[in-house]
Amino acid sequence: MLRIESVTGGYGRTTVLHEVSLEVPTGAAVALMGHNGAGKTTLLKAAVGLVRAKSGRVLLDGEDVTGLRPSARVKRGLGYVPQGQQSFGDMTALENLQLVGDRAGISEMLDLFPALKDLLGRRAGLLSGGQRQQLSIARTLLTRPRLLILDEPTEGIQPNVVAEIERVIAELTGRGDLTVLLVEQHVGFALRTASAYYILESGRITARGDGGSEAHDHVRSQLAV
Ligand SMILES: Nc1ncnc2c1ncn2[C@@H]1O[C@H](COP(=O)(O)OP(=O)(O)OP(=O)(O)O)[C@@H](O)[C@H]1O
């Protein structure tokens, strides 16, 4: 469903990604790991269209979207949750959801993220990091993406919320109606959530394999400096 073929790109004259290829099959979750500065966010942005590929191709459901701007990719079913649990801080959690979804959609999201039910009237800026992360994911899911791209969904959030996010991803991919690409530093979470992983180092894919706990040691050794 998402195919990145030999993409080279970066910012201005700075090349960050060097002939990166990666594939996320329909209905699967794939984790992208690597050290700080390896280019993980840049690769996600290349998938979203926020970073232009100087060479190579990005395909969504077999269609070449390399020349398409982000909004056109969103129309084709892509949803992006950037790093940092962003939402409109002065608006309530409910208002943040109402900007994107109708009543039925919001009710579905509250079933998926029950913790948000009691927080609807609270200003998003006053929520904890974990609560804001759930709100950001819910808001993106309200756009009904078929491909969800998450940048470090567990960064700086408490373990009980990490478990909630893990459950939601498993539930949605388990239904077969969502494909997920996530950047993740938390190896345990990444390998439990994803059926395959890629490791990016200095803008190049240096390892890939299947997810699951048996990959844990291999991934850790790959990530060790
Ligand atoms: N907007 C930008 N303009 C110029 N260079 C950038 C920009 N954003 C990132 N970079 C550079 O691109 C390289 C890769 O950054 P990127 O954020 O993709 O890495 P990352 O693997 O996601 O790291 P982190 O885990 O710290 O988020 C870094 O050297 C960074 O300084």
TrEMBL record:
<dbReference type="InterPro" id="IPR027417">
    <property type="entry name" value="P-loop_NTPase"/>
</dbReference>
<feature type="domain" description="ABC transporter">
    <location>
        <begin position="2"/>
        <end position="223"/>
    </location>
</feature>
<keyword id="KW-0029">Amino-acid transport</keyword>
<dbReference type="GO" id="GO:0005524">
    <property type="term" value="F:ATP binding"/>
</dbReference>
<dbReference type="InterPro" id="IPR052156">
    <property type="entry name" value="BCAA_Transport_ATP-bd_LivF"/>
</dbReference>
<comment type="similarity">
    <text>Belongs to the ABC transporter superfamily.</text>
</comment>
<keyword id="KW-0813">Transport</keyword>
<dbReference type="GO" id="GO:0016887">
    <property type="term" value="F:ATP hydrolysis activity"/>
</dbReference>
<dbReference type="InterPro" id="IPR003593">
    <property type="entry name" value="AAA+_ATPase"/>
</dbReference>
<dbReference type="GO" id="GO:0015658">
    <property type="term" value="F:branched-chain amino acid transmembrane transporter activity"/>
</dbReference>
<dbReference type="Pfam" id="PF00005">
    <property type="entry name" value="ABC_tran"/>
</dbReference>
<dbReference type="InterPro" id="IPR003439">
    <property type="entry name" value="ABC_transporter-like_ATP-bd"/>
</dbReference>
<dbReference type="GO" id="GO:0015807">
    <property type="term" value="P:L-amino acid transport"/>
</dbReference>
<keyword id="KW-0547">Nucleotide-binding</keyword>
<protein>
    <submittedName>
        <fullName>Urea transport system ATP-binding protein</fullName>
    </submittedName>
</protein>
<keyword id="KW-0067">ATP-binding</keyword>
